[in-house]
Write a structure and sequence with these properties.
The complex is a heterodimer. Helices cover 80% and strands 0% of the residues of chain A. Chain A is an all-alpha fold. The mean pLDDT of chain A is 84. Chain B is mainly alpha-helical. Classes of the chains: A mainly alpha, B mainly alpha.
């Protein structure tokens, strides 16, 4: 894309967004729909600023982040070693692969009511739901990544005198890393969906999912839209900044994948 | 919220067992073994009475709930409604998503208009829109179907767009040189060329629709549906009914993947030799 085309694309994108915002604002102000259901953009911005300034939004975001990161970390600690073991040992694969294939098609949110009964309302349900949602993408990607390591690399390293440990750390893990990063990304996307859904269904007192759902009761569409903005922003930060830079620092730098387009 | 197919990044895992040339009974036994172990552990814990049997029913109780509800038609009715809702929402998403994606791939103007809108909507997890849709369209089917359609449209749009852009310039030019008009070009070159990506998009869209539909059914208070069955059973501590519902959800999910998509893929792109 040439520089001229890029500026034209940027200008058109800005025009589109402004036009969409103007259309929304016009509909909201026309009074066709009640303002409680369709708040104007300044009202949404005001709700966002107020809740951020008085700290409630930050508190909600903090609770949600705590749940999602706890569940996500738990999933990685379990799924990463298990995926490697599955790829290395036939017996482990034979045992866990059928179980994973049977559990994977069940959406994590289906377990929420069951987990509420078992563990009561609260953080544990959300963390376990996130764990369930994040485990399978992590597990399957690690497994196929380790299996996909080029056997030639292993033999070459072996011929150059690498022992088991060096082989594992210097060849197998870096070789599987593109898959592992894909797994981490997919796992985070699913965790992010799962935590919001779990917070809505297993209503606790704090959390971005809960605040959206609770705002429905009081017809606070402005608070709902403000929380949507926060949810989208956090998701975007993780996807682009955290995992994007992780990818740049590892597999892109090692030249194992090309930069993804778009 | 989307997974486009990067040119050289690893594709998602194929669940192919790494053994071949084994007698069938051994494969069956090997696959059944872990379930038997887990079932036995479950049964032992349930019978020991560590947890109240209402909350942790034995497999026998779950199976009998499953059979009872299937025989009197309640479970099939719930399942049917869920599947209809899924297909309606996904049908909307597939039609709208492919249309938008193809437009974005073919025209610079459409790309500039739609890309910013889609990029803003996509990173928000679909379920977060649920209360908003409930507020706007009321409790019930309309909200559930629209939400499922809205959420599963994103992967379809992104992948169709990528696929149409990935059609090789040289194929287009050679078809044109051989006298293909716009319609023939679209039907015989662009569509088949983009199909592997479009299928990936549809597959991801359906998976995403399936993942949130159950949650949406819990929130939207629809009269029938597996999500609602599970959620409603919690009030009466009917853990057996809940687990039977979860089992049906698993079966439907597995059937979607195995029967619909793997077959579709085999009949189209694999047969044309575009993917193996």
């Amino acid at each position: 894309m040439s520089a001229g085309e890029r500026t034209r694309s940027l200008r058109r994108a800005a025009v589109t967004l402004l036009a969409a915002a103007a259309a929304y604002e016009a509909i909201a102000r026309s009074g066709v729909f009640p303002p409680a259901l369709l708040p104007t953009l300044p009202a949404v911005a005001r709700a966002l600023v107020t809740t951020v300034l008085d700290g409630t939004m930050l508190n909600h975001a903090f609770h949600t982040l705590y749940r999602v990161l706890a569940g996500f970390a738990l999933a990685i600690t379990v799924a990463l070693p298990l995926g490697i073991l599955m790829a290395r040992f036939r017996a482990v694969e034979n045992f866990f692969l059928p179980l994973a294939s049977a559990l994977m098609p069940i959406p994590s949110l289906a377990w929420v009511p069951v987990f509420i009964l078992w563990f009561g309302l609260g953080d544990i349900v959300a963390i376990l739901i996130v764990f369930y949602a994040a485990t399978f993408p992590m597990l399957l990607n690690t497994w196929s990544g380790v299996r996909a390591v080029n056997p030639l690399w292993l033999r070459a390293a072996g011929a150059m005198g690498a022992d088991e440990r060096a082989l594992f750390w210097k060849v197998m893990i870096p070789g599987a890393f593109p898959f592992i990063i894909t797994g981490v990304r997919q796992a985070f996307l699913r965790s992010w969906i799962a935590v919001v859904g779990a917070e809505m269904i297993a209503a606790s007192n704090w959390g971005l999912g809960w605040v959206i759902f609770d705002a429905k009761e009081f017809l606070n569409a402005d608070v709902m839209l403000a929380s949507l903005v926060v949810i989208g922003a956090i998701g975007f930060v993780f996807e682009r900044l955290v995992f994007g830079s992780l990818e740049r620092a590892t597999v892109l730098r090692w030249g194992m994948v090309r930069a993804a387009k778009g | 919220m989307y997974d486009a197919v990067p040119a050289s990044a690893p594709a998602s895992a194929e669940l192919a067992p790494s053994t071949a040339g084994e007698p069938v009974w051994r494969t069956v036994a090997r696959t059944a073994f872990p379930f038997i172990v887990v079932g036995a552990v479950w049964e032992t814990v349930a019978r020991l009475g560590v947890f109240p049997p209402r909350l942790f029913p034995s497999l026998e109780v779950v199976a009998s709930a499953f059979i009872r509800l299937t025989a009197n038609g309640i479970l099939p009715h719930h399942a049917l409604d869920t599947v209809i809702r899924l297909l309606a929402g996904f049908g909307l998403a597939a039609a709208a998503g492919m249309a938008i994606g193809i437009a974005m791939g073919r025209s610079r103007r459409a790309e500039d208009v739609f890309l910013p809108l889609v990029s803003i909507g996509a990173p928000i997890p679909g379920i977060a829109y649920a209360p908003l849709f409930l507020l706007w369209f009321g409790l019930g089917n309309v909200s559930a179907v629209l939400l499922v359609g809205f959420v599963s449209a994103f992967p379809v749009i992104f992948n169709t767009w990528t696929g149409v852009k990935a059609v090789k310039e040289i194929w287009l030019r050679s078809a044109q040189a051989m006298g293909a008009d716009d319609r023939a070009l679209f039907r015989h070159v662009i569509l088949p060329g983009a199909l592997p990506y479009i299928l990936t998009g549809l597959r991801l869209g359906l998976a995403q629709a399936w993942r949130i539909l159950v949650g949406v059914e819990m929130l939207a208070a629809v009269p029938w549906g597996l999500g609602w069955l599970i959620f409603g059973a919690r009030e009466f501590l009917n853990t057996d009914v809940m687990l039977a519902g979860v089992a049906v959800i698993g079966i439907i999910g597995l059937a979607l993947e195995k029967l619909v998509f793997q077959r579709l893929e085999r009949f189209t792109v694999v047969r044309w030799g575009m993917m193996t």
